[in-house]
Amino acid sequence: MKNEYQRRAEKLSKAVGAKEVRKIKARREKDSGIWFGLGMFGLVGWSVAVPTLIGIALGIWIDLKWPSRYSWTLMLLIIGVILGCLNAWFWITCERKKI
Which in 12, 49, 76, 78 has the greatest CB count within 10 A? Predict the structure, then answer.
């Protein structure tokens, strides 16, 4: 039966090994440098901007068609930003798993 020290040492060894494998893989795949970063930046930007703009447009249309005490534009703007951020988080998580 292993003692606590041996289990911790094995866990640390596995973590260091996994990081080393990722480093070696990153060094082999140098083509994903600045262009990959710019592409991700654009993807994140558009994934937040598009739902936000759709929410604004829909909110303006609802406010013009059915005026009320509440601003649908503001509510749908906030919903669009939240959905866009969730969308961006999803894409970043997927890309991080690939790396």
Answer: 76
